[in-house]
Amino acid sequence: MTIENIIFLIIKPELDKEPIGIKILEIAGILIGVFYSALLLSNKVVFVDWNVQLYNTQRHTPIAIDTLPTIITIAVIAFIGYLYLRFVPLQKQPPLATVFGMAAMYLGVAALVIWCIQTFDKSDFFLLFLYPFNCFLVAARTIRYIVYQKLKIISEQDEAPKYGRLSKLMDNIYNLPWLALFAAIPLLGIMIAVLALFGQEPNSIIKAWTQTADWNLSQKIPPPNIIKDEHYLCTVAAGGHRSIVRPLRMGRRHGHEVIVNRQLCIANAFEQLLEERTPKFHRFVRNLYDKLGYPIAKHIHSPYVADIIYFIMKPLEWIFLIVLYLFDINPENRIAVQYPHSKVPVDKINV
Predict the structure, then answer these.
(1) 279 vs 107, more confident
(2) Is pTM beyond 0.90 here?
(3) Does residue 145 sit in the same domain as residue 268?
């Protein structure tokens, strides 16, 4: 689609009857590009605001959630302006309506420029530029098509009509692009005033980019990400909903902070006891668990799935606890000191 949009921008448009397929391709690119961009973002970006604690390499949303109505409104107005200019013949467009159609597209282009600045990154997010680039191509081609159409209409006139100053200004096709630039200001003001009636702040268009974290225009400092070991089932399950998995504290695993709950401590204490009493059997169990646990755990990215794993592991947790109380003199001591990060509670020390 990008290559085709570049070609369509370079070649001279057919003014008599432009193929409808070109317009359909443009609309498809605009709509599908939104889906592709969201799909790319979903790989590492979580749809939550800056104050929510995340895991591993996750990022917060690049647009503040409370201001989304403002950004969506700008996008919709820009799209409506594009549809008007592309599908309504220029002969049937009032001059001022043409100007405001261009102004609407300018607002959309400005939002895309800010989006590019916000998401500029050397990582995989550079692909996010592909969608704005296609929108720029479509906008440039639309304005170019309007200019060619207007020149054709003027060339077909038998004689130049006499205009007043305003009519002369509006009829000059070369004035439309910069007139649209000025018209974008009152159009934006009207949009902000209407959105204010629905609870949006007047400066939402600025807060949309600044009230975020992890991005170039962000002004908020988020809580540090928690490293969640995604290799093992119990560790993953500890990242479920707090009311279900009941986290106790932060611990350390392989040099990283992890969420620790009682189930995780019991499982690790059982493994430690197994390693002390039966080293050979422990190696067999460890190897088996590594082969089975990792392929399953690496696909668990939702707190709801983590909750399910937590419940699935419950019977094993009870078995581990029974074994600990059968073969360990101070089982709660062993459980309490797993993943040491905070001081062991005094009431758990029996020695």
Answers:
(1) 107
(2) no
(3) no
